[in-house]
Design goal:
It is built from ten helices and 13 strands. By secondary structure, the protein is α/β, with parallel strands linked by helices. The N terminus and C terminus are likely disordered.
């Protein structure tokens, strides 16, 4: 940035001293000190010269009359906020000082005025002017800083506008791409189910109708085909469910958690009996704001995982509880399963992120991704607290609803659902 203060014209001293040789002598003193100056013919000339550069104004007291003070006052009042032109007023004796003070009162507090009483030494005049010019330099520095800040703000506004436009454009493109990807996933998954059902049906028929014809290896191959078709069909169903979460219209309402969980457990009766699971639903009464179908999907997947990932030979024991937080309700599902190492806590919520080999534990690697997407769409949070080889506690947080308030536990007793 060029420094306008270095321009000597901006620091020149305007002199208005019409009596005798005062102006000429003053200019000579200032030139000897290296100060640029300009003698003005009258107040009009001085006013005209100020916009062309003015570091300070030197005035003789005899220049102050009603008209000149009015003109000078108008000049000072029109200055920008950073500008306060230094004025050195030369007076003669005590009477001159009093007369000048009365005239200066007409300024109404405007201006940066220093009074210099005659007679004075040239060094005194030069020192007074140099002090005034140092003050003026600082004013110019403020002006330059304000100008640069204004340019920076304009550049930042332009940059912010450009970035905002780019973000909007990229967001729109990303949303369109996501819609296309979801539509593609839905179409592929939907179209895959028909041949999968045929594959499973023919493999089952082969085992039923030709089991006496097939040797042990043939029966094993047919069983593997059937198992693979079943597993792939489940994967397709999970993909459809995952895709459907993005396309489903989000209608939120007040959802009473405990009745919903009890209904989910009743619907999962066959799976609970299969695993001989014990599900302990604690006594609580909280309502959250969300989509009931999505909450049901999330809880169903968490309960299903809690039963699947159990230690071999161990009966799944699951506790479901809820606590009230400042703005949300946290629902926890604790199991006695195989646990998850801390470094995998975030990984398990990604789609297809399995921590175990296929066949070691059932599942497609999509269940927790469905939980994550469902809770995210409702503005909630999901997480897990666990260590490898120990219990896991999965939790979801959703905004609380004001329709239902917490009720105290029923003396610590918790209705328990047991396998039949």
């Amino acid at each position: 940035m060029a420094d306008p203060v270095s321009n000597s014209n901006q620091l020149r001293v305007l002199i208005f001293a019409p009596t005798g040789r005062d102006a000429e002598l003053t200019r000579t003193f200032l030139q000897q000190a290296g100060v640029e100056s300009y003698p003005c013919r009258d107040m009009s000339d001085l006013i005209h010269q100020v916009p062309n550069g003015c570091g300070a104004i030197l005035l003789a007291e005899e220049t102050l009359n009603t008209m000149s003070v009015t003109m000078l006052t108008e000049l000072l009042s029109c200055q920008p906020f950073w500008s306060e032109i230094p004025i050195c007023l030369i007076v003669i004796g005590t009477d001159g000082f009093r007369n000048a003070s009365r005239r200066l009162a007409l300024f109404g507090g405007l201006g940066n005025v220093t009074i210099l009483e005659r007679p004075f030494r040239p060094e005194t005049l030069v020192n007074t002017v140099q002090v005034a010019l140092r003050s003026r330099r600082r004013q110019y520095e403020v002006r330059d800083l304000v100008t640069e800040l204004g340019k920076s703000e304009e550049r930042y506004r332009d940059l912010a506008g450009t970035l905002e436009a780019q973000v909007k454009a990229r967001t729109a493109a990303l949303e369109e791409l996501n819609k296309e990807l979801e539509a593609f996933t839905y179409t592929i998954a939907h179209d895959l189910r028909a041949p999968l059902r045929a594959q499973q049906s023919f493999a089952t028929a082969l085992l039923d109708d030709y089991k006496n014809v097939l040797d042990e290896a043939g029966r094993d191959y047919a069983q593997r085909i059937s198992d693979s078709a079943i597993r792939l069909n489940r994967l397709v169903q999970d993909l459809l469910a995952y895709s459907r979460l993005s396309r489903t219209e989000l209608n939120t309402q007040s959802v009473d958690l405990r009745p919903l969980i009890l209904r989910i457990c009743a619907d999962m009766e066959f799976q609970i009996a299969e695993y001989q699971a014990i599900i302990d639903v604690h006594e609580f009464s909280f309502a959250v704001c969300g989509n009931e179908a999505m909450i049901e999907t999330a809880i169903t997947n968490l309960l299903s995982n809690a039963m699947k990932f159990c230690k071999p030979g161990q009966r799944p024991e699951i506790e479901v509880d809820a606590i009230e937080q400042e703005d949300s309700i946290r629902l926890t599902i604790q199991d006695n399963g195989i646990g998850i190492a801390p470094e995998h806590h975030q990984q398990v919520f990604g789609i297809f992120n399995r921590l175990h080999k296929v066949g070691e534990y059932p599942g497609t690697g999509v269940g927790l991704a469905i939980v994550q997407k469902a809770i995210d769409r409702m503005g909630g949070k999901v997480g897990v607290e666990s260590e490898e080889g120990r219990d896991s506690t999965f939790w979801i947080e959703l905004p609380k609803s004001q329709n239902l308030k917490a009720k105290p536990a029923n003396n610590g007793s918790h209705p328990r659902m047991k396998a039949i």
